[in-house]
Amino acid sequence: MPFIDSKITLPVDAPTKEALKTKLGKLITTLNKSETYLMVGIEDGYDLWLGGKKLERGAYVSVSLFGNAPKAAYDKLTGQICDLFAEELDILGSNVYVTYHPVSDWGWNGGNF
Q1: Rg (Cα) of the chain, in Å, rounded?
Q2: What pLDDT digit, counting tens, does each position of 4-44 carry?
Q3: pTM
Q4: 34: left (phi over 0), alpha (psi -120 to 50) or beta
Q5: C-alpha closest to that of 69 among 113, 31, 24
Q6: Are the C-beta atoms of 85 and 59 separated by less than 8 Å?
């Protein structure tokens, strides 16, 4: 039950959003999760500041998941997300924050897991 929410400073066209969604669906396996229940949100044209300076090219990526994953898996996924955003959007890893939010109570389809 993962959710990856991305806030991106740039405008992102529909084909690029689709590519990001597809590639994030593959990367989520790093946390031993599958794309089957992955939800992805992409908010573009988002204002972000880092160190008091407005980022022209930057992103904040929040990864929520039911349960937890090993620290090494989080480390690996952070690198993969930074590489993806560099490849697809030309955003440097130094301008990408990634946070992880393990959740013990997750609801779906009228009930909780």
Answers
A1: 14
A2: 999 999 999 999 999 999 999 999 999 999 999 999 999 99
A3: 0.94
A4: beta
A5: 31
A6: yes
